[in-house]
Amino acid sequence: PTLGLILGSTEALSDRQLPGTPEVFAKMYGEAQLLNHLIDDLRTLSLADAGELPLNRQACTPQALLERTAGAYAARADQMGIELRVAAATDLPLVLVDPERMAQVLGNLVSNALRYTPSGRAIILAAERTVDGAGSVLKVEDHGSGITPEDLPHIFDRFYRGDRARPQDEGESGLGLAIAKSIIEAYGGTIQVQSALDVGTTFTITLPTAAGND
User: Fold this and answer.
1) How far apart are CA 141 and CA 127, in angstroms?
2) Residue 151 DSSP label
3) Could you tell me which residues come within 8 angstroms of residue 87 by beta carbon, excluding any fewer than 6 positions away?
4) What is the pTM of this model?
5) Hey, what's the torsion of the CAs at 178, 85, 136, 54, to 10 degrees?
6) Which residue has the higher pLDDT, 210 or 106?
């Protein structure tokens, strides 16, 4: 629909069937941005599938990764009346990740959580050591509307759009969670989700400890 709208509008402008108003050009620009975002997401997935996704790995603390994301979304959460809280242990081992890619992953999860968490509730970004001590667990937990049992098995599927996991507005490509899964798996980690309707959703990321740290 995005490309069709751009082509249709361009043709109508060329034929003088559509006035060249600022509103029309703003709409076309917005649709072009959406298409560009989709192309970028498809390129990221293509590189991940081929094992060629560039990753600038650095030793990072889980707490720092979560605090960066919380800081990026603090103003938006405050405007929505939602508490965004970091609850991470400070003595966790380092993880070897690309900070920018992790910001992309965690940002996607927090952005989704904000869409489905009512005002007055909280979103918690937590981190702890795995039970066996071989890695760290990062969690994004919301207390929102939850994901339907029908949607839950499919939310990491590409282009899947369920009522909860794949909003069809706000410029989303439907690839955010698929990309998050690809990035986490590139680190040798895992990402899982648990959810209950009208209770909330928790995404759990498990990452191995950086070599030489325990």
Assistant:
1) 11
2) T
3) 124, 125, 126, 127
4) 0.79
5) 40
6) 106
